């Protein structure tokens, strides 16, 4: 055993010697983590100042119609507006004559950023209606104008209310009910809350960026260079090789994490940067102790993440393939650590058992000075268990036969992998084109923009990508797109799945809203399509359900899946499909539901060997969501519909003979 | 002479996800003796590399047995690795280590005592004329220089058996010549060398005995004279063709 230990150490020392001589490894594991915060503070401060100066120095134009207000109140508003840098025009705007949004946009024109219209009460016995703000949110200036107007109205309202109350009753009767909040938390607690909500996410990101290069170099890189074969014919047990290499990766990851945490701490202590919730008179020695305890709790999770990085790298056929595999891993790890950013997410026993999530919550709480011994012990035990599992799996993976046996097929494989590599490139192109092109089109006109995005950009990309795959595979375009006739059972199963999953989507959104709440403004924008109220339910279904069902499926489950499935295993195809489909929807708040839907649609297509069931499933899913969310068909929200998933899975799982995909 | 390498009914089946079970070796019986150069001759995909990898304990046999220097490869792979040196065309060197560090690193993995290792490294550096570039990083060496370092690495622990998988592939004329000299020198030192090649002239020039392997089966084995007699042909390429066509 001692011999094995010294051999493991010899491998470790060799790895470290090579890593410390690699500029990229030093850059990723030492330099970047150390300078990231100083640079971030420096540039974010400068950029923030510049942005603030720039915005504050720009004038906004607000057109006011305050005829409905008491003249004294109107004067107060004018006086308030005089304090801010505005170009104000006072004019009569007949709001009741406005027939709709088009007329409002016409009134705003290109020179006005906001119309503020005071409206009288509809009935003399009722309160006056709120001041109407009309703006066209095309850039930051209308938003800025709205914010300034809102602030002025708030101040004027408070002053006017108080003055009238005092005038009426001689004193403000509400004064005893006003509050004056004093936070008695110690500076260390306040500092800990601020740091704790950030640290878990930073920890996993730095661990992955620092450890991934070391892992790729130690396994996939060595395999590619031909040195792994040499190493595995030395009289060293594979366990010792795995331990030595893993130790080097772990040390690299921990160095990166420690360097990053220390640089953050240093920036705050020496006042190089500041965070909103950190008071200036913080006792950093106490905060440092808590930080050290939290990091200790997080150490087993760091060990597990490094082991998973090694596992991925050991299974990769090349350095490049290993790099590709770390992308979905990074997203998964970030998603698991994200709940720690939410103050409402508690560290319970169940959360303690979830890898990364439990440790992230424990790190957050430890840094914030919250000590819950039971949960923290559970986290430590569970994290150690997960780490041991990953390390054990790594030792088994580093079996010479497994690592090298497929070497003879490498040449043939590299030719075949052209299809999946090309499909992935097209996938990322599609995401970019939809972000940039689709975003621009929909900003100009949401409805026409959506139609053009789907039917022109989406279908265009699908046909171009599929044409290349078809040419390389020697098949027709229809075969590549999976347009062969499907089985009736698969179509019926897909319809059941679409309807059933739509109910789970609602639950998923609710859960996500608790764990990662959507900002109010974004929620308002995303909750309803602005043009929805102008369309009939039939047109809505055509536009928001059938069109995406056809166009997105032909692109993702047709053209892209057709390329991916030729070289990759089904789980990898499903993972990439989930990632790309989640990414193309361009919202972190919708990523999880859309990624899950993308993965399920890919699984259905792989099973059915035709794209038609996916088109049906996607259309049915979107139809249910649109009819329930926009039209208000309540029975579609019934949880009982979720039962349809069972027959859906059974019908899709029915064996199929030769298909066309 | 004693057998340094012996295989009996060696069989290897790979499970390919697309092609199902692929039989790479179908019962190979092989015997290489001490102080002998044995050439394993065969076209690409014949099973040469699989045979050598089983002997080097990289692959596990599906059936049959294999012994290297009297040790069963399946029963005690670590002891087998202590007794053999392995070098293949795809063998690489750590780009960021120098030749001297490379030799020290692998010597450490063989458990060689520090003082003994230092002396051995200097001896190899001198023997293989590495001195001039012994402290330069391997990544910047020429292919011939790298080849010399790889050979030194393979014989660092002075193994009784040397297994070389197509050792001259990718080498220039001088590199090939160095390799052939090295193989010859090992035989003179009483070591067993088993090497695979598809270059007939190398086998003809170097080998004491030759085994012809095709589609996972050993079609013939013996000295060149014995193979000529067996097939009734004069030249090795004709012998090879005759054995393959008769199979």
First-last Cα distance of chain B: 30 Å
Instruction: Tell me the number of strands of chain A.
Output: 4
User: In oligomeric terms, what are we looking at?
Assistant: heterodimer
| H/E element order of chain A | HHEHEHEEHHHHHHHHHHHHHHHHHHHH
Query: What is the distance, rounded to the nearest whole angstrom, between the alpha carbons of the first and last residues of chain A?
Result: 54 Å
- What structural class should be given to the helix and strand makeup of chain B? alpha/beta
Strand content of chain B: 25-35%
Shape call of chain B? globular
CATH topology of chain B: Rossmann fold
Judging by the overall fold, what is the CATH architecture of chain B? 3-Layer(aba) Sandwich
* Count of alpha/pi helices of chain A: 24
Strand order of the largest sheet of chain A: 2-1-3-4
The dominant shape of chain A is globular
How are the strands of the largest sheet of chain B arranged?
6-7-8-3-9-10
Most extensive protein-chain contact, per-chain counts: A-B, 28 and 34 residues
- Integer tally of domains of chain B: 1
Q: Quick one: CATH class of chain B?
A: Alpha Beta
Measured on Cα atoms, how large is the radius of gyration of chain A? 30 Å
Summarize the amount of helix of chain A as a percent range. over 70%
